[in-house]
Amino acid sequence: SGLNKSILDQGWGEFRRQLDYKLVWNGGWLVVVPPQNTSRTCPCCGHVSADNRKTQAQFACVKCGFEENADLVGAINVLRAGHARFACEVSGAAMPPAAGTHRSDSDAAQCRV
Ligand SMILES: [Zn+2]
Question: Which helix (DSSP H) or strand (DSSP E) does residue 81 occupy?
């Protein structure tokens, strides 16, 4: 909540409005995704836990052992959530979970990010 307040204080609402405007002007589009659990979700097996985030910088899944830089994990999850949301908006299906798709345990062993 402290981070949210500081972001609001920085006028990120205006930044988002400008980004949307510029993207449309240049033939792109802005896909807004809910940020919940994007930093806590394992991109390999889908396990969601605060314990996956060992430190601010390091992600280590407590379920499958996947390890990666925490910022990269967050970016992967946001990208997946954006793709899932965009696909669902096109098809008219229900909205997906915030952090994208969940994979079964059998997929974890073959995970390559
Ligand atoms: Zn995992």
Answer: helix 70-91
